[in-house]
Task: inverse folding
């Protein structure tokens, strides 16, 4: 991954926050909302985008007759995240 | 500073903050404490019902024995069920601090039950002063691990107020325990009995203390958010 070709998934703070929080495990929509302190509409739109890009998987189920959405990071998403962090580290390393 | 470097630093700081926040998310463990409080509340109602029947119908009534046993079984089974549910939930969330806390509380609550069971089985029969002191000391098996677990909860969550409240409670408890003062208990529908004030304080701790701790962690978990704009 290069600085001039950063994937769309890492170009907004909220998407980056969503992916970072999913690194520690599956989260429900409500949990993601609490962690990122974002609005329903904004969060929903960013999750949808990340799903389309193949970074997250969305699971919809009924729990106690209420719809519950859970998100998980995909293997591709995790790999891309790792590459992105490595790129950031490289960028911050002092050049000799 | 170069704009690219500035953005890179921003992103790294955001990633760190979010990961730290997911580690400090005590919402699930907070619900565990609330459930422990509810279980103890239900057990208390059962105990009071047993006293009520004893006071109105008589000691020999079969329901008095059943409800008396029920008090212990509700707590033990409740602890095991709640521990199993929350341990499973937290294992999948990979939240190391909360998972550690659940393990400590599981060992403390369930383990102390088995310890006191063993203790009571090993107690010699009789009615001497020594045996009475040993009977009274059984309560310490229940309360001391809870106090230790509360201190550990305060340390793990880095909430000083939990540690301070636990310290105050332990001092109050030991003063009450050593003073051996008693108060009327279970006097619904009759005379009831006298039990040590320290035992009443343990019941209050396990019902109200746990619910307050749970609510405090739940509210605290919600109030530490930064917003991330798109």
Result:
């Amino acid at each position: 991954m290069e600085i001039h070709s950063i994937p769309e998934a890492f170009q907004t703070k909220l998407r980056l926050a969503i992916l970072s929080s999913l690194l520690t495990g599956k989260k429900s929509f409500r949990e993601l909302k609490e962690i990122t302190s974002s609005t329903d509409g904004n969060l929903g739109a960013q999750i949808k985008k990340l799903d389309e890009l193949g970074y997250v998987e969305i699971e919809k189920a009924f729990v106690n007759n209420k719809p519950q959405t859970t998100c998980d990071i995909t293997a591709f998403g995790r790999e891309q995240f790792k590459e992105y962090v490595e790129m950031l580290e490289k960028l911050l390393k002092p050049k000799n | 500073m170069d704009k690219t470097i500035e953005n890179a630093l921003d992103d790294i700081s955001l990633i760190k903050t979010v990961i730290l926040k997911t580690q400090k998310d005590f919402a699930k463990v907070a619900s565990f404490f609330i459930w422990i409080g509810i279980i103890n509340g239900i057990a208390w109602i059962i105990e009071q019902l047993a006293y009520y029947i004893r006071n109105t119908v008589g000691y020999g009534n079969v329901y008095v024995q059943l409800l008396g046993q029920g008090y212990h079984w509700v707590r033990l089974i409740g602890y095991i069920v709640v521990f199993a549910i929350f341990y499973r939930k937290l294992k999948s969330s990979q939240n190391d601090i909360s998972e550690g806390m659940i393990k400590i509380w599981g060992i403390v609550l369930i383990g102390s039950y088995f310890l006191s069971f063993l203790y009571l089985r090993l107690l010699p029969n009789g009615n001497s002063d020594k045996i009475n002191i040993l009977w009274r000391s059984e309560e310490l098996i229940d309360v001391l691990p809870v106090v230790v677990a509360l201190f550990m909860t305060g340390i793990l969550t880095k909430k000083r107020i939990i540690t301070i409240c636990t310290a105050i409670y332990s001092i109050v408890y030991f003063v009450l325990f050593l003073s051996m003062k008693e108060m009327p208990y279970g006097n619904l529908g009759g005379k009831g009995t006298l039990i040590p004030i320290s035992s009443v304080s343990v019941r209050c701790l396990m019902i109200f203390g746990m619910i307050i701790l749970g609510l405090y962690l739940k509210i605290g978990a919600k109030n530490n958010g930064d917003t991330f704009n798109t």
User: Anything to note?
Assistant: Chain A touches chain B through 27 residues (CB under 8 Å).
